[in-house]
């Protein structure tokens, strides 16, 4: 929860936190000073913390050193920064300490959701893998209002585990996918994200080792980091998280939890093979390590998709499966769920009571009806994704032939590699071309700059947006190519 | 988070946890053994924990000692309990330790929400102060579906702080109540409960002193206890939390937060006076102690109601106001919000991202429309409550003339005092008459059995339910009167 008091972040990490700072009017140094000031006011940067040198920050932001010098000077003149010979520039300890928001607790300082708070006109943000609502959702809502409303309004009490009809529908849904399930194994949540949060609350405490995929989904790394978990990152191959790596991690670290995204991995789009699912299930049973299977993207398939990992787990394995209809149906619905052994489901539903008592009834009733047309939704969404992927790959191959990626098995993003180029530098250039990208280093529990050549590129946009996006990305790429990793002021001012 | 390992709970606390255990078939000792077994399986009772003596538990449950002896014997024979000369009966350390759910972390072992998980046919549960949905809610839902749906479905991104139109509507709503507010001060949450949780996450950590009302709302005491907060309970008078008590608590404990329910206090129904609101606001400004004003019941007035406490706070005070439409409109909606200084609202919305990314859009759009008819809803709800209160008071005065209560200023419950009688004993008898009551001791951060003569009695039921409830309560009261605090087996078997 507490901000870092005496640590120092790298220039690249500060650049991530600064986000779209050059946007807006006025001199560049002032915009930089103002954005630094905001980060201090918000408690993201804390009193006593050391800032990078002028030279390092200038390089990371691709601006001239004099701009950073002017920005630091102006903050020094108002007592916000201190500089002492030999100890560099620090945030003044006279700045009133503010409560930290835990936002940077994971050590990553996740800028992925930054854009949700700083909406910028004209900027294409790639922070969220949002997909447009399918028409079936609107139909389901209208059916609920036409047919279910009186019964819903008469519900006299809260349902912390979820509306009974929905728990039954979810259990039946798993039954139909080869995973026999009873309603008491289900807890309905406010999206898959809350389900992962509740599981983290139950299984992780300060210092708990947790096996995670590397790269992995920054949103969930964030919330586990916020609980103080200690990450044990394991790489992926094209069948999913590496089995040998997981076995070694279990032997060496006795993890409290293994967190994986089998269908489909975010950000790489990898689908975990049946063999790997079986291997993880057996490992859970043999070593008594619970597995959290986050399948928020299930049903968004480019190729065929096997049943959940839980379906391959032998007796004695503890697998918790998390899903949602946010991606397949509509992000605005915010209904997800978890499936766990019944006694764990009961305990998780008590965490739900502490979190927010229970979920809203209307959205749960809509979800009952959406599950009734799940196959149709999944087919529509998958067709839409395949088409968008084909078009995006075509555009990228043409405009950015040196970029590398593996065609994903599902999900809504490409994991792009920029051979020989630091993606963070490219992210800075892309910002000047009105695209907010998430650099690969953010998608890792490692703090050694791994995946520095990669970034995540969502592709599930309409054609016109795809074309505009790739056009901007190509312009930014040419600029990076022409001016190298550190550009001079005039380039920035063109924006 | 961790269960108690070597503590021992009082017989009364075990009785609270056992809940409606005598219900169902089979011999009484078996039902008791089975329910104890369930509590162990769920991790509520933990290996190594000592159980009360047979005599003490028998007295607390109002059953014969031989029943408890038989129950303990049967659990000993299967290795679940251990008894050693001189050290009493303990849960065997050979029982596999299970992960605790944090349910009992506050030390209270809150059975208030137990009934949400154990729905019993024919039982009248008083655990939640639910109120039936008002017709305006259904109208608002139909309007949203008729008019707002296409725009909602086109929303391309998450809104962690809330749908912009709703934040604006809430800001305007406060403006109209004498509390000028900008939308960036608002964070929309999944009910008032989540708002209190987010504030606790930001302000409280393990050991943080927090001033709370005594008695207070067990649901929120629970979630603060789950964060490891240290409670500093301050009593109330008929103007609200005692000002002198708060000043003394601030001087002695330097609390990180003052948690209060000014409109209306749960469980007493007290409305905080304007003078007391002003006093607390000034205290916050002078000592730099933030105040969390939980007004989940605002608008449910028996008498007139002043503006929020925040409206009386001078410059420099940090007051966070929490509200919801769950009580006034419909509990199934689960839309609440908080109003805070803008920089704190930003930090709280980041906690919202970690919790569940953002709230559902449909319910937020419905809330926009409900705020447009807030005065009408509040008037309807208040009329309904006054009528229900009048009738309930009349029924109680006639059937239970020795009971004492103060007519509440608002809210939906009476705080009843049973002169000379331990409410926990009465709760046990009431259970046999199919009423699940919440004993007063649960509603306190003190663990010394304060408020032992009191219990919370919701009154916002339809007339027929009120009459049935009072009839059952009166039967239970006569039984307690006739057989005293410890009844013999045959009385229990009558049920």
From TrEMBL, chains A, B:
User: One MF term from GO for this chain?
Assistant: pyridoxal phosphate binding
**A Pfam family matched in the record:** GntR
Q: Which InterPro entries match?
A: Aminotransferase_I/II_large, HTH_trans_reg/aminotransferase, PyrdxlP-dep_Trfase, PyrdxlP-dep_Trfase_major, PyrdxlP-dep_Trfase_small, Tscrpt_reg_HTH_GntR, WH-like_DNA-bd_sf, WH_DNA-bd_sf
- This protein's record includes keyword Transcription: yes
| Keywords assigned by UniProt, alphabetized | DNA-binding, Pyridoxal phosphate, Transcription, Transcription regulation
- The yes or no answer to whether the keyword DNA-binding is present is yes
Q: Which SMART domains match?
A: HTH_GNTR (SM00345)
Taxonomically, the superkingdom here is Bacteria
HTH gntR-type domain ranges (all copies): 26-94
Q: Which family does it belong to?
A: In the C-terminal section; belongs to the class-I pyridoxal-phosphate-dependent aminotransferase family.
**Protein name (record):** GntR family transcriptional regulator
Organism encoding this protein? Nocardiopsis sinuspersici
The lineage is:
Bacteria, Bacillati, Actinomycetota, Actinomycetes, Streptosporangiales
């Amino acid at each position: 929860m507490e901000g870092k008091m005496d640590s120092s972040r790298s220039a690249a990490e500060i650049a991530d936190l600064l986000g779209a700072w050059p946007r807006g009017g006025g001199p560049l140094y002032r915009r930089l000073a103002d954005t630094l000031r905001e980060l201090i006011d918000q408690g993201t940067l804390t009193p006593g913390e050391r800032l990078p040198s002028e030279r390092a920050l200038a390089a990371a932001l691709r601006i001239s050193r004099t701009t950073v010098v002017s920005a630091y000077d102006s903050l020094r003149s108002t007592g916000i920064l201190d500089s002492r010979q030999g100890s560099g520039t620090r945030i003044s300890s006279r700045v009133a300490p503010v409560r930290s928001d835990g936002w940077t607790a994971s050590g990553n300082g996740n800028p992925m959701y930054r854009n949700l708070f700083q909406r910028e006109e004209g900027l294409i943000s790639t922070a969220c893998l949002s997909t447009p609502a399918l028409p079936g959702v609107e139909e389901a809502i209208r059916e609920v209002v036409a047919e279910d409303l009186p019964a819903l309004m008469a519900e006299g009490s809260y349902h912390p585990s979820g509306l009974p009809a929905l728990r039954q529908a979810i259990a039946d849904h798993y039954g139909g996918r080869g995973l026999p399930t009873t309603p008491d194994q289900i807890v309905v949540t406010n999206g898959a994200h809350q389900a992962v949060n509740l599981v983290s609350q139950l299984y992780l405490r300060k210092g708990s080792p947790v096996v995670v995929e590397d790269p992995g989904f920054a949103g969930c790394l964030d919330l586990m980091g916020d609980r103080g978990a200690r990450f044990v990152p394991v790489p992926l191959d094209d069948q999913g998280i590496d089995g040998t790596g997981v076995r070694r991690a279990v032997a060496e670290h006795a993890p409290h939890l293994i967190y994986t995204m089998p269908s489909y991995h975010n950000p790489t789009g990898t689908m975990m093979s049946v063999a790997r699912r079986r291997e993880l299930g057996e490992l859970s049973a043999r070593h008594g390590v619970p597995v959290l299977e986050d399948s928020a993207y299930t049903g968004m398939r480019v190729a065929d998709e096997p049943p959940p990992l839980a379906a391959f787990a032998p007796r004695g394995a503890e697998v918790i499966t998390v899903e949602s209809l946010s991606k397949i149906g509509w992000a605005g619905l915010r209904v997800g769920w978890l499936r766990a052994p019944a006694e764990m489901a009961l305990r998780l539903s008590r965490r739900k009571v502490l979190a927010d008592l229970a979920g809203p009834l209307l959205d749960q009733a809509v979800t009952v009806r959406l599950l009734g047309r799940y196959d149709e939704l999944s087919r529509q969404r998958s067709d839409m994704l395949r088409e968008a992927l084909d078009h995006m790959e075509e555009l990228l191959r043409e405009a950015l032939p040196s970029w590398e990626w593996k065609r994903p098995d599902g999900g809504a993003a490409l994991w792009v590699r920029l051979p020989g180029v630091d993606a963070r530098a490219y992210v800075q250039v892309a910002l000047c071309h009105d695209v907010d990208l998430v650099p690969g280093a953010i998608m890792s529990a490692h703090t050694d700059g791994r995946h520095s050549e990669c970034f995540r590129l969502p592709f599930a946009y309409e054609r016109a947006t795809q074309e505009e996006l790739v056009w901007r990305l190509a312009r930014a790429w040419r600029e990076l190519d022409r001016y190298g990793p550190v550009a001079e002021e005039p380039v920035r001012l063109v924006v």
